[in-house]
């Protein structure tokens, strides 16, 4: 089953996150990066094509044998679904229509959410902004695992199960760490999603509905793309809080692998993050980085010094402003 890991608590730090200071330093040296702070209108058409692809898949799987429904849910649906969650991540940063049309981005996020089967977009936006403002903030950043996760998932087998159950933990963690009042937009997101799911079931039946939901759950669990959940902030090297990935799966994930670049410049769309790295190469080339998310998953399970506790955590000071 594997040996119990040595770490018994999070890595508490008493310094600010590094991204704000690095952003100021880079902009002072490379002011041309400001030109990249604009919407990516191509994102709109990519999302529309992805929604269309999933609608086509819902239709095509309606009469398949169940074994093939499961097969295609994992091989195709999971990739589209996980990619769509990262399109929603882009939209949460107003990358589709810009900051001047923030509500357009919220409505578009609800539209992008439809083929996932579960309401996600509006709540994700609220919590994700906290993650950027208060990275590692105790009781605020719900990207940090709970103490139960760190305590219980402490052997190789349990860590493997934790990876499989990632969608479950990401769903319930906000309710445990930082519950927020439900907003009108979240209710709209929920009602729109339920209506869409009912229509899919009415038009094409249980297999299409199962394909949609299974693709989302499988894609966010034991899946190569899910390596980014661990690669982004789990402390494989002491003292390093954020890590970038420069492998080929960035093509499916709107360059979310460029994660140091993203946290330094969250208002630059993923499409332009490789340019940030190129322009400010002296700041990024020597930072710890990955080239395989599959290896990250393997190392997380097999390295007995790494667990859900392997995160930097901060006790926040002063006023905390949340969405």
Automatic annotation (TrEMBL):
Catalytic activity entry: 11-cis-retinol = 9-cis-retinol; 11-cis-retinol = 13-cis-retinol; all-trans-retinol = 9-cis-retinol; all-trans-retinol = 11-cis-retinol
InterPro entries noted in UniProt: DES1/DES2 (IPR011388), FA_desaturase_dom (IPR005804), Sphingolipid_d4-desaturase_N (IPR013866)
Pfam families according to UniProt: FA_desaturase (PF00487), Lipid_DES (PF08557)
Name of the protein this chain belongs to: Sphingolipid delta(4)-desaturase DES1
GO BP term, pick one: fatty acid biosynthetic process
Coiled-coil region: none
Subunit structure: Interacts with RLBP1; the interaction increases synthesis of chromophore-precursors by DEGS1.
Taxonomic lineage of the native organism: Eukaryota, Metazoa, Chordata, Craniata, Vertebrata
Intracellular or extracellular location(s): Endoplasmic reticulum membrane
Protein family: Belongs to the fatty acid desaturase type 1 family. DEGS subfamily.
UniProt EC number: 1.14.19.17
Chief place of localization: endoplasmic reticulum
């Amino acid at each position: 089953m594997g040996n119990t890991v040595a770490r018994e608590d999070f890595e508490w730090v008493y310094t600010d996150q590094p991204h704000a200071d690095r952003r100021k330093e880079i902009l002072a040296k490379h002011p041309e990066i400001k030109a990249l702070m604009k919407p990516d209108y191509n994102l709109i058409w990519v999302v529309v094509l992805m929604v269309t692809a999933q609608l086509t898949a819902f239709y095509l799987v309606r009469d398949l044998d169940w074994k093939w429904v499961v097969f295609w849910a994992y091989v195709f649906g999971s990739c589209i679904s996980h990619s769509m969650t990262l399109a929603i991540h882009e939209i949460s940063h107003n990358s589709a229509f810009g900051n001047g049309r923030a509500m357009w981005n919220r409505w578009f996020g609800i539209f992008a959410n439809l083929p996932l089967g579960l309401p996600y977009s509006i709540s994700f936006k609220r919590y994700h902004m906290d993650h950027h403002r208060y990275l590692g903030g105790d009781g605020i950043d719900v990207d940090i695992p709970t103490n139960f996760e760190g305590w219980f998932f402490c052997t190789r087998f349990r860590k493997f199960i934790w990876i499989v159950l990632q969608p479950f933990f990401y769903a319930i963690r906000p309710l445990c760490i930082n519950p927020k009042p439900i907003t009108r937009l979240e209710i709209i997101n929920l009602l729109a999603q339920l209506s869409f799911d009912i229509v899919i079931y009415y038009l094409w039946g249980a297999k299409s509905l199962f394909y949609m939901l299974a693709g989302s759950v499988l894609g966010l669990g034991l899946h190569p793309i899910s390596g980014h959940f661990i690669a982004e902030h789990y402390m494989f090297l002491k003292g390093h809080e954020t890590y970038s990935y420069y492998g080929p799966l960035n093509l499916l994930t709107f360059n979310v692998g460029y994660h140091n670049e993203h946290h330094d410049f969250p208002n630059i769309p993923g499409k332009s993050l490789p340019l940030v790295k190129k322009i400010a190469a002296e700041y990024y080339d020597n930072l710890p980085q990955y080239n395989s998310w599959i290896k990250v998953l393997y190392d997380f399970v097999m390295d007995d010094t790494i667990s859900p506790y392997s995160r930097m955590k901060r006790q926040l000071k002063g006023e905390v402003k949340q969405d």
